[in-house]
Task: structure prediction
Amino acid sequence: MICWMELTAFKPHPPSSFPKHTLTSKRNKPTYANARGFGFGSLPLLSSICGHSRARLIFVSQLHNNNEKRGLRQCGLSEVSSTFNGSEVSDNDFIVVNFYRFVFIKDPNEEVAKHLAFLQGLDVRGRIYLNEQGINAQYSGPSNEALSYVDWLRKDDRFFDILVQISPAPSGHAFPRLKLRYKPSLVQLEGGHSHLPMLDPSMQATPVSPVEWRERLKAINNTGDASNGLSDTDSIVLDVRNGYEWDIGHFDKTTRPDVDCFRSTSFGLSKSEVMKSDPLANADKEKTNILMYCTGGIRCDVYSAILRQRGFRNLYSLKGGVSYYLQNEGPARWRGNLFVFDSRLSLHPTAYKPEVMITEKDQQNVNNTFARCYICGSQLCDLRHRNCANLDCNLLFLCCRGCVYLHRGCCCLGCMSAPRLRPVLPGNQRYDKWHNYRDLKLLSNLTS
Result:
């Protein structure tokens, strides 16, 4: 993707004096320009680059001969990826923002206090965790307020070039409240990751750009089946997400992870016996190329450090994860939707690259045939999970409408007779937090 910036009546900074970040307007909130086309790339940097707020960003997938129009020039700053669907973006449009960085933070509790002070009064909800090894953030809010936090963060030299990913939240907030605090582990992993060398670049997998990732997958699929372990190119594509994430979307010919929580992931960790479910069990640690991917990249960074310690040498990870890939390459070699950890649950690739989906719609529909109902095994078109109505089960599973009705929202016959059953929710509605239902049995007894 190429980012172009159309400017009117501006006084640009000399190239050598471009600031790395900027803050503008009252309360350190940036002034954002209108954005058309495919998002707004580096909006938090816009006012400092242009010296004027009247600008708009246009994203195009290829250049045309008439691009010599007055006022167009190429913009090389595109680290903030956007996923809007081509409509004009207003300050009140809700978005979800995701970013992370492993970097040394001397006093994380002081850092938490600084972030809380800035976000006070802003309509931002989500999960923002900090510790001595860095930051991990997923939150929602109106675009102007959500992105002002990014702009503020980039004042810090440790985060000036952080890759920020943005996706639309058409129904408003995707999180119930803001949780910003110190957390010993930025991702859920058995035993945490504070003991891992997360700040050592040599222990990380080599990042692969979306376009290179696409070409690598093409080469692997043309020479062998990546789902069966080693291909003719001695490469393995490793999905380090949860199994239920794979169930609604994954790259072609990849193996479903045999885990329901990243915390218990154990690829390549077998010692005494070979595990059939481990695609790295028979891998040559010196020669095999291991291509790892997850939603946004952080789980690959953590797990690559573990595999490095286990002696695996040729590790590669998809830069920015699947969300960044879909935004740049569209659904090529991707099947289905992308699972996200917020109230939206599932995002169709049209949220990332709608112009490609128009031409590949039929092919995409064919690619969805892998999804099956957890209960009856029938093919599904709606790639969206639901939780079991049994409060004490709460399994996240895919289900056809018929089984939802017959099993009263439960995942199995056993759960149908459980003492604490929540009501069956129609459509894509989600249950409230568990504490809203914990007294179901008591209430049932009182009303019977």
